[in-house]
Amino acid sequence: MPDPTPAAPRLLLMAPEDNCLIARMPLSAGEALEIDGARVTLPEAIPLGYKVARRALKAGEKVLRYGAIIGTVSADVAQGAMLHTHNLASDYIPTYTLASAAHSFTGSTH
Question: Which CATH number applies to 11-90: 1.10.3860.10, 2.30.130.110, 3.90.1300.10, 3.40.366.10?
Fold first, then answer.
């Protein structure tokens, strides 16, 4: 996927494999942005620092930030929609556990 930064400097891509972007400033509902070459109208206001779907995501898909799994989408999410607790379940495993089901960085063999 192309880097969205030149076309959408209001969004930040943390790692090339991420399927979410980070709002670098508050974004307004109805605001039009370009994400990976597609013109997207934001369906809702997105606060500073919140996650935005880089592409459409289906319920059950994993969300990657910094190349790491951070959660699972709990409902279908359109490209440009906010990812937060209403549509994203955390996959956080406390660092003091070493459960075999713990998630790791993409490409990791652990």
Answer: 2.30.130.110
Closest to 34 in 3D by CA, of 24, 42, 45, 43:
42
Distance CA(19)–CA(13), nearest Å, equals 9
Supply the pTM of this predicted model: 0.76
CA atoms within 13 A on the CB side of 74: 12
Q: Please, what are the averages of pLDDT over each run of 10 residues along the chain (110 residues)?
A: 55 96 96 94 96 97 94 96 92 58 50
How far from each other are the two terminal CA atoms of the chain, in whole angstroms? 26
